[in-house]
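Sanity check

After download, print the first record. It should look like this:
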Amino acid sequence: MNENIVVKVPATSANMGPGFDCLGIALNVWNEVKVSKGPFSIKVIGKGQDELPTDDNNLVYKSFRKVFEKIGETVPEVRLECTNGIPLTRGMGSSSAALIGGLMSGNAMAGFPLSTPEMLRMGAEIEKHPDNVAPALLGGVQIGIYDQGELVTARVPFPEDINVVLYVPCQTMPTDQARNILPPEIQRKDAIYNIGRAALLVQCLMTGDLGNLKYATQDMLHQPDRQKQFFPMKNIISAAMASGALGAFLSGAGSSIMALTKGREYTIGYEMADAGMKSGLDGEIVFTSPTARGAYIEKD
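Expected structure tokens:
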């Protein structure tokens, strides 16, 4: 049993516009989980330090514990230190990062009894859908689907020189609230609209021919309904596109807006923030990039 573990987990952005519940991308913004043997304690530093629980209801600890429950061993007494760079309830995969951080650190402390696919299945079962969990664990752009209860994932190559600009509002958008606003049924024309654009998005990323990203990141399955809940979204996306973004969309269930870029990042960020301000929002701009690397254990 390993005594000291450090796990790094990336932020993620789900859906990517048309890929609702099926597509996600890992971002170069990280959470860190340090686990060591000792009297039980949990310390949270950075994002969520005044909001997240520091008892056994902490999501990192709950998923750490699940590893030992699965293998039928006693949960060891540990100290957890979580240093979070990922904002909470902003559509950047903070809960998936916590899940994966707990599962990976628990697996490492237990001597690696679980394979990566097993941890992926466990994370997706807890999170309910794989579009954040898969890129958090595996990195890059990931497609995730279920077939008769079996999770299938596939990596999509993407250009290494693509950048990301995120407008992260102070306004939160809890995932369950954003999901509950969606109607239970959709129209066929909207399904066709999204199928074509999701296919085009994969083609753009795989070939590096990014001229069609402005179409490939459009959506009719979730963004129009979430627009009713988060009215500045359309204006911020329009501002990103007008100032040179290749594509822009609501990140996960929101409230962050993500733009894919190759140049003009500061102009795009400024215009997104200005559009947010004109809609009565405060927020911050995050400049980053996709990462092909998923969660990993840091070597001493």
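If your output differs, re-run the checksum step. Summary of this record's structure: The mean pLDDT is 93.
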